[in-house]
């Protein structure tokens, strides 16, 4: 890794962008030895707000920050970028059908995939946060000829962190003592948070999973619907925790996952665990600082298999819809 990296953040004027940018400038994402050139991208109507965020970042006087620029043009914003955080996406508005949402976002991520292929650095790594994140990542990847498919990922780290938090609450363990949790499938309510291979201190996750009532009626739905619970309590969607998870994702990709542990990453499938090739599906994965590698060979029981299959079926339907719309 070189000692200066260019990072582009889209949707920079939004809530997640606001929470992420300060942490990136402070060195939390790439490590304290790496200087950062920050590029903020947003829609023309949001550029003024992004400039306001940029003014606040300047006022942080961050030692690692080499430059800070605001753009409303994707090709300018991705020029030479090493890390692209694609946070901005079109939210579902009232009365919007699923096809309309996929179509609006398909156009955004098609354009961004093309721009990344044309102007980003040869070593670019992409994390899609904006929903529907998995399928947006698929669209970007399929429109980026020449960029290896494994460089396009989508965020399920927040779901992963939420699963660790719930498991910690249930067992009384601290997050640092919990490892090998997995989120499978789509970043949606169909995701399957899996603790059967987890470790909680000296205890096996499979042992904790014996409490089927807690597992099926509490743990799995609480993790999958946590976003909705936060909206109900806070009056707006999770932002700082999503930003934190995005930073964890890139941190572990670039600097490596801890020995003996893995994390959850939505990655293009090569057919692992029977997931159709090309889908961007969440798997257990490790990094040595280079590419993500899916952890293979985990035993999946009937309970897991049925849930993973349901989430993968949703990803197949999303892929078919964007294909029909001509985006992939
Ligand atoms: P946020 O910053 O709160 O969220 C941005 C995206 O992240 C949304 O799609 C949101 O999905 C998604 N997301 C993924 N995981 C989570 C999670 N766990 N919790 C919350 N959100 C999650 O949105 P804002 O509306 O505050 O800001 C969006 C910005 O993006 C605006 O400034 C807008 O102008 C910009 N934008 C930029 C585009 C571009 O650069 N081309 C295109 C479109 C918008 P969900 O909506 O499902 O919660």
TrEMBL record:
GO terms for biological process: malate metabolic process; tricarboxylic acid cycle. Coiled coil: none annotated. The keyword NAD applies. The active site is at 187 (proton acceptor). It catalyses: (S)-malate + NAD(+) = oxaloacetate + NADH + H(+). NCBIfam families: MalateDH-SF1, PRK05442.1. This is Malate dehydrogenase. It comes from Rhodococcus rhodnii LMG 5362. The lineage of its organism: Bacteria, Bacillati, Actinomycetota, Actinomycetes, Mycobacteriales.
């Amino acid at each position: 890794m070189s000692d200066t990296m260019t990072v582009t953040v889209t949707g920079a004027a939004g809530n997640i962008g606001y929470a992420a940018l300060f942490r990136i400038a402070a060195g939390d994402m790439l490590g304290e030895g790496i200087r950062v050139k920050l590029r903020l991208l947003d829609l023309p109507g949001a550029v003024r707000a992004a400039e306001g965020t940029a003014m606040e970042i300047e006022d942080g006087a961050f030692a690692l920050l080499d430059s800070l620029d605001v753009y409303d043009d994707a090709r300018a914003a991705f020029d030479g970028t090493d890390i692209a955080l694609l946070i901005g996406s079109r939210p579902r508005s009232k009365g919007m059908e699923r096809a309309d949402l996929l179509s609006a976002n398909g156009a955004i991520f098609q354009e961004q995939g093309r721009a990344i292929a044309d102007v980003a650095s040869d070593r670019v790594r992409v994390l899609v946060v904006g929903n529907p994140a998995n399928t947006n990542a698929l669209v970007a990847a399929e429109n980026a000829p020449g960029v290896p498919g494994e460089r396009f990922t989508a965020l399920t780290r927040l779901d992963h962190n939420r699963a660790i938090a719930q498991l910690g609450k249930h067992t009384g363990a601290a997050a640092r003592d919990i490892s090998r949790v997995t989120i499978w499938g789509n970043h949606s309510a169909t995701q399957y948070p899996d603790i059967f291979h987890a470790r909680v201190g000296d205890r096996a996750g499979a042992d904790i999973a014996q409490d089927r009532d807690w597992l099926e009626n509490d743990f799995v739905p609480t993790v999958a619907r946590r976003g909705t619970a936060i909206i109900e309590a806070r009056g707006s969607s999770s932002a700082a925790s999503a930003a934190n998870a995005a930073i964890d994702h890139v941190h572990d990709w670039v600097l490596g996952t801890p020995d003996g542990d893995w994390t959850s990453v939505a990655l293009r499938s090569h057919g692992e665990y029977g997931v159709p090739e090309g889908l961007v599906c969440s798997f257990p994965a490790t990094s040595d600082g280079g590419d993500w590698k899916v952890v293979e060979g985990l035993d999946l029981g009937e309970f897991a298999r049925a849930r993973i299959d349901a989430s993968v079926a949703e990803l197949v339907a999303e892929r078919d819809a964007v294909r029909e719309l001509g985006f992939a």
